Amino acid sequence: MTESSPARAAHAPAVLDLAHLHGSLSDPALLSMNLLNEVSDHYPDAVSFAPGRPDPGGFAIEDVHRYLRIWTEHVTEAEPRGAEAARNRLYQYGRTKGVIQDLVARNLAVDENIHADPESILVTVGCQEAMLLVLRALRADDRDVLLATDPAYVGITGAARLVDLPVVPVDSGTTGIDLDDLAAKVREARAAGLRPRACYLVPDFANPTGLSLDVPTRHRLLDLAAELDILLIEDNPYGFFGDGAPPRPTLKSLDTGRRVVYLGSYAKTALPGARIGYVVADQPVVRGGESVGTLADELSKIKSMITVNTPPVAQAVIGGKLLDCDFALREANRDATARYGKRLRHLLDGLAARFPATSPVAWNRPDGGFFLVVTVPFVADDDLLAYSAKRHKVIWTPMHHFYTAGGGLRQLRLSCSSLTPEEIDLGLDRFASLVTDLLERT
Amino acid sequence: MTESSPARAAHAPAVLDLAHLHGSLSDPALLSMNLLNEVSDHYPDAVSFAPGRPDPGGFAIEDVHRYLRIWTEHVTEAEPRGAEAARNRLYQYGRTKGVIQDLVARNLAVDENIHADPESILVTVGCQEAMLLVLRALRADDRDVLLATDPAYVGITGAARLVDLPVVPVDSGTTGIDLDDLAAKVREARAAGLRPRACYLVPDFANPTGLSLDVPTRHRLLDLAAELDILLIEDNPYGFFGDGAPPRPTLKSLDTGRRVVYLGSYAKTALPGARIGYVVADQPVVRGGESVGTLADELSKIKSMITVNTPPVAQAVIGGKLLDCDFALREANRDATARYGKRLRHLLDGLAARFPATSPVAWNRPDGGFFLVVTVPFVADDDLLAYSAKRHKVIWTPMHHFYTAGGGLRQLRLSCSSLTPEEIDLGLDRFASLVTDLLERT
């Protein structure tokens, strides 16, 4: 051992080799998330159809103060120890499950016809933490696998990678999920000695496809999940944003067998900067045949080692927002929903105006949400994206990032949730010139 | 596949068996965290020496509003786009690394003589997320192990368990870490084909022991880490709270070789309810011999799959607090530090008054922090804790929870950070009656 001395020699720097860090750090899913988050920053002059960002509308920082005051007042009036309770709840560490589960439960009853015991709800740091908690709990050993509709949100693929849980892709088909493929994949996995634990999907206006399951498919999926004995992980960030058609029931509201773990988010519907999501996990858990509580209780144990608590300050802001709209958040989002619908129609009309039926460019027509998928007659990869951003000043998302097992090379995702109609027009003009440029080359 | 029909049959509930969930859920470390967090709630009449909670002092909810306004004003003045920049930063998803790293860096320079590039700092949801990120990155495969001083904070043991990273205990000795044991453990692990990656420790007023490394030991530890080629993970939640003696330099401030990954927290020094921690990870990372950035960049990729962002609302509150005290947070904590010191001395004096030198009860004498350890002539386990809480109305923490490889059965931890001198006296009277009760039985 070296002796201590007054004049210290400098040490050579510690260098870490990526080959000796966790494999997820070399995984396409994690690299995609960074690329997708940062591409718009690199080309500030480009019109970006990339981020699925909510539009701030009339948001003002003063709203944060107002929500916080509404929540403070509510706790002060509702609790026996009044103002002291509000102060302690905001100041101190609280229960790992959260401090606003009762308010979330009331919101779910009003907006989604989901009637959840607040004790089965865990408030999380964004929906992303909820995904990680559920996947960490379900991944017991090397045999476990997750099913996920393909293409899928990179956040679920990345979370699965972080807990070393392989993802088995299930064809999205044209209705959001191909049930025959789901059944076949579960059976194949079991035949190979694996344990398919759950199927992840976004039933409403999925990211990246924009697809939604129709109601009969929802019922059939629930029946099939019971038959196959797998859980369904329902992720619902965009359900409010239907363009005209009446809302479809969530899987969780139809779930009579506690098959559905429901992931919710207030990022798109209340305030992204609060980073408040939640999970409803009412599945009973047993040990040696005896009940030990619910999956929510187990997720709470895991959360105590990840973030301990979701910041009470951020929970209080969302709690105030829910109180402010009397738990009818869907109604409070009516203007935003109309705005998103108008933009989506503007995008669809703009595509039709620029690419006639004879054009080799095609796209799907979601009836809501933030996303649609365009198919092009050339490879739309990251290199082309860089070229498009630089030369044509328009940014979009290569679909191949969302495919678990390859595919999507001639597809791209467009989002217009945070673009004005004028920006959409400008962006589409530039996109059309990119297409012309590429078609002239081939 | 079942056909959809108008009248739906109810499904039998999905039941999960704990045996098929992740092993961490049956691990003592995760069960401890819950037990320790909840025991005080079960016995509201008891005096609790259990939680290492900061004292709210004169905190008022209005402070949260004030900090938020200070931060808003700062961004509005500092950024070219002014008020719009502040609004966007608070509203939108931001960079995964955070929105206040520059403020954290200034605070570290003022308070700790640590001069970190803001790009090497990642703002996290409490220090717990920082631990998880670092351990996830370092655990590449089955050969990797973490070293940690024993006994250790359950948060590090639990985070290691979540990423399936075994913990090799290193004796804390009487000075916080036994360097000979550290060297021996690293060599033994290597001889067994394992890869010891880092050693975790709390050099100042450790939880649970209250021990601090003296300055020569700090230098020797840095030399030894370089010699052994391992990282040091320095966790520093209590460093401000020395009782009189001048602050000792952090390992990071002495680190000339980028050996130290520094974990910081504003939970004890600013506002627990904001849940803001951070990690300084300036280690260079290479791939195939070429630089690809720093460990902070890699941690950011992992964070993008755990929480995506630390809530900007919570970051802004802490940013405002840092601006408010002109980055001199240690000075801003002077009154709190004096209060904690007075309580610790009151606890030490109270123990001495109740247990004379001839008593079989002994304790250590930390010179700051929130904790001390009492050794008793009987087994102080969870059963005795329940008995103590019920019969004698006093709560403490069994030390065995903090030992990785067993031990501490006749030790208990006392914390008095959130107790008044009167509560400490009452609690110690009750604790003395518990000791008398137990000694009469044996």
Automatic annotation (TrEMBL), chains A, B:
Q: Which residues form the Aminotransferase class I/classII large domain?
A: 73-430
Record keywords: rRNA-binding included? no
What name does UniProt use for this protein? GntR family transcriptional regulator
Secretion signal, residue range per the UniProt entry: none
One GO MF term on file is: transaminase activity
Is Phosphoprotein there in the keyword field? no
Cofactor(s), names only, from the UniProt record: pyridoxal 5'-phosphate
InterPro entries for the chain: Aminotransferase_I/II_large, Class-I_PLP-dep_aminotransf, PyrdxlP-dep_Trfase, PyrdxlP-dep_Trfase_major, PyrdxlP-dep_Trfase_small
What GO biological process terms does the UniProt entry carry, in alphabetical order? Answer: alpha-amino acid metabolic process
Identify the keywords attached in UniProt to this record, alphabetized: Aminotransferase, Pyridoxal phosphate, Transferase
